[in-house]
C-alpha cells in the first residue's frame, strides 16, 4: 500500500546503507558464505550509529536465516541439533553480537524499553525461537511488566509471547491472553493462531486461554482441514495421554476430533501420521486403521521411520503384530543404511536399537554401515553403537554378528579414547565391553591412566584444603547433589572413587590386568586408610558392592574388596538416616549387603539385639512421621523383590537367619517382616489424619507393598480399612459441598486435629486401591469397604470428566489412566464375590451408575481393557510341553484355544478347553507370591509348586465364580526351559479330569 517493505523500515536515513546491505544479503542467498555471518559482518561495518530498532530488525533477519538452516540437511557427522547449536555459537561469538547487545540493552528509552509492545513481543519471540536464552531472559522482565500494567494487552502481542515462553511464565500470561482473545469479538481468529495457543496445553492443561481456544475450535471443527484436526489431536490427546488434571472439555474435544478425522478418511502428511501415533493404545483403536493404511502408502523420512518403529515396539504384540508395516519401514531403513551410511544415521538408529534387536537383517545392515564409515574421522558414532549394542545384548541374540563387532572394536582400538570423554562414559564403556564380550585392551589401558590421573588430582585437591575436616559422612537426608563429572555428588573425590571401583570390576571380569588401577581400587575399598579413602557415602558404597559382587565368585581379590566395603558400610549403618538406609536397600543386589541391611532394620525396629528373641523390647512401637512410614513401605517392597529373585518365600526365613550366609540369610526373619507390616499398618491411620495431603498416596503405596509381599493371609487389613474410610470421595468434595478436610461419617476417627485439604484422589490411585483391597482380601470384602471403594472409584470417574450414560467417557478415562483392567477386575469382584443383598445395597449408591456403565462399555469393547500375559523362556517352554501333551490327552475333535480371552472379563488364559469350561494358565511373576513353597497342598507327591499371590488368587476367584475351572500349570511341576522329558498324557488326563470317570477325577484334581 505504498509503504516500504518491513525490512527497509529502519530508524533513519543514516542507516540506509546498512538496510540496503542487509536486504541484498537476504535476497542473494549466496552459497559461499553463511547468511547469518554475512548479516553480522554488515552490522559490524555499518551499525555504529544503529539504534535498538535497527538491532531488533537485525534479530528478525537472523531468525529468517536460521529458519533456512533448519530446512537444509546437516553436514556429514553432525545432527540438526548440533548444527543449530553451532549456528547459535557463531552468532553470539561474532564481534557484531556485542554491538547488537549494546544497542538493545541500553538503559532507558534508548534500549528495548523504547520499543513498542508489538516489536517487544516479536523480539522476545525471535530470541526464544533461536534458543538465545540469555537475551530472552533479559527481555522478559520488561514483557512481564507491560503485561501486568496492561500496556501489552493486544491478543496478537500476548500470543507471540505465549507461544515461546517457558512453562513457568505461562500462568502470568494466561488470564490476560484469555481476556484479550475473548474481548475482541469482531476479530475472526485464524485456525493456526488458535492451534498455536492450544499447543501449550501439555504445559498448562488448565489454562483459561487454552480452554477458550478449545471451545472456539470445537465450534469450527467441521470447517477445519484434516491437517489442522490432526494437529489438534496431537496437542490434546497424544501429548496429554496419562496426564493428571486434564479438564473434561479438552478430552471431549480430543475425542470429537478423532471421530471427525476417522469419518473423513482422508490423506494426511507423514508428519501428521507420525504425530498421531501417540494417540493409539492398541491395534483395535478406530484411528489405527486409518493411520496404518496411510503409513503403508506414504513416503516417510528416516526419523519418521524410527518413530513408527518405536510405536510398533511399544504396541501390544510388538512389531510381530503389524508385519506388513514393520516390513516396509525396516526395508526402507536397510536401503538407506546400505546407500547413505553417515555417522548421524548410524547414531540415530543405534539409539533406537531396542526396536530392531529381534530383526537380524536390520541389525546386520546397521553394523555393515558402521564398518563402512570413514576410518580417518574420530569414531564417535561407533562408540555410541558399541554401548547401545551392549544395552540390548545384541551379540547374545545374534552371535553371528560377533565378527562385525570385532571389526568395530579394531577401529576403536586404533583411535583410542577421546580426551573429552568423561569418567562416567568410560565406566559405561567398560560395562559395554563385558556385555559385548569384546575387550579393548588398548582403550582400557588409556582409560585406566585417565582414571588414575583424575584420582590423583582429586586427592591432591582434597589434601590441600585448609580444613579438610573429618571423614566424609552422609548428610542427614542421605541425598547427593551434582558434580562436574555429570554424576551425583558435590564431592568430586567420592565420585571418582565410585566410578574407579566400578570400572576396575568390569576390567577384572574381562580378565584385563591393570596393576596400578588395582592398587588404587584397593586403597579406595580399604577401611583402614586416611580420609581420602573414606569418601564414599552409603548409596555409593552399595553401588560399588553391587559391581564387585558380579565378579566376586570368580575373582578372589574382588571378593576381598567387596567384603571391605561391606564392613565399611555396616560400620556406618548406625549413623545413617532412614532415607539413606532405604537407598542402600534399593541397591542391595548382593547377599552380604542385604544381610547387613536386614540386621540394621532389625536393630532399629526390634531393639538392640536385632533378633526377635524372647524378652526383646521393641525399639519402635509406633510411627508418627509420614516420612518414616514411607521408608518402611519402601523396605517392605525391597524385601518382596529380594524374595522373588531368591526363589524363597518372604516369610519363610528362620528367626536367626538374618546374620547367616547364603540366599536364605539375605531375607529378613519372619518376626521382623511381621513386626514391620504390623507397625506400618497400625501407624497408617494416625499419619493419614495428621498429614491428609499425602493420605491417598500413602494408603495406595502400603496396599501395593503388602500385595507384593505374599499371599496376605496374615496381612493386618483392619487398619488399612480404617485408613480407607479417612479418604474423601472425589465426587463428594467436588459436588456435595462436603469439605475435603471433614472426616467422613463412617470414619473411625475421633480426632479433632485440624487438617489441610487432601490432594485430589485421581483415577489411577482410586483404581489401584480398589483392585489392591480385592486382591488382599482373599474373599468377599466387608460391605462398608466395598461401599467406600465404590464411592472412591465412581467419584474419580466423575471428576475425570465422565458424564455420559453409555460409559464411553468413563471407559476412555480409565484406559487413558492405564487402569482399565484393574477397574474391571474390581467391578467383577463386586458382582460375583459378594452376597446378593450387598450387591443390591451397592447399586443404590450415587456413583454406582457410572461405574456400571463403565463396566458395560468394557464388556462391549474389551480389547483395550485386558491384563497382558507376559512371556518368558520358562513360560514358553511350559506351554510348548503342554501343547504336545494335550494333543494326545484331549479326544480328537475337541476344541482347544490358545491365548483365550475369558468372556466378559479382563483376563486371558494361555490355553482353554471351552467345551469343558476349563482354563489353563501358566503362573507369571504377577500371579505368584514372592518365592515358593514345597507341596503347599500337602499332596505328598514331592513336587515343588509356587504360592499364589493376591493377584493370582483374585483371578482364580473371579473366573471360578463365573463358572470356569482354572488350572494353574506351574513350570516347577510341568516342566520349564531346562526340562527335557515330555509331559505324560496320562498324568495330564488325570490332572484335567479327562477319562471314563471324569467327574470324580476332576474333583480330585481340583
List the defining traits of the structure above.
1006 residues, mainly alpha, 4-stranded mixed β-sheet, two-stranded antiparallel sheet, 47 helices, 6 strands, globular, disordered N terminus
Would you give an account of this structure?
It is built from 47 helices and 6 strands. Strand 1 and strand 2 form a beta hairpin. Helix 17 (323-339) runs parallel beside helix 19 and helix 24 runs antiparallel to helix 25 (492-510). The chain starts with 15 loop residues before the first helix and ends with a helix. With 1006 residues, the protein is mainly α.
Element layout with pairings:
Blueprint: H1 16-28, H2 35-46, H3 52-71, H4 80-92, H5 95-104, H6 117-129, H7 133-149, H8 155-162, H9 170-183, H10 191-198, H11 208-219, H12 226-238, H13 248-264, H14 270-276, H15 286-297, H16 302-314, H17 323-339, H18 343-350, H19 360-372, H20 380-391, H21 394-397, H22 402-415, H23 423-436, H24 441-463, H25 492-510, H26 515-525, H27 538-552, H28 556-572, H29 578-586, H30 591-606, H31 626-646, H32 662-665, H33 670-690, H34 695-709, H35 717-725, H36 730-735, H37 763-777, H38 783-799, H39 808-816, H40 820-832, H41 836-843, H42 848-860, H43 873-889, E1 897-901, E2 908-913, E3 918-921, E4 933-934, E5 944-945, H44 950-961, E6 965-968, H45 971-974, H46 985-992, H47 998-1005
Parallel strand pairs: 3-6
Antiparallel strand pairs: 1-2, 2-3, 4-5
Helix pairs in contact: 1-2, 2-3, 2-5, 3-5, 3-6, 6-7, 6-8, 8-9, 9-11, 10-11, 10-12, 11-13, 12-13, 12-14, 16-17, 17-19, 18-20, 19-22, 20-23, 23-25, 24-25, 25-26, 25-27, 27-28, 27-29, 29-31, 31-33, 31-34, 33-34, 33-35, 34-37, 37-38, 37-40, 37-44, 38-42, 39-42, 40-42, 40-44, 43-46
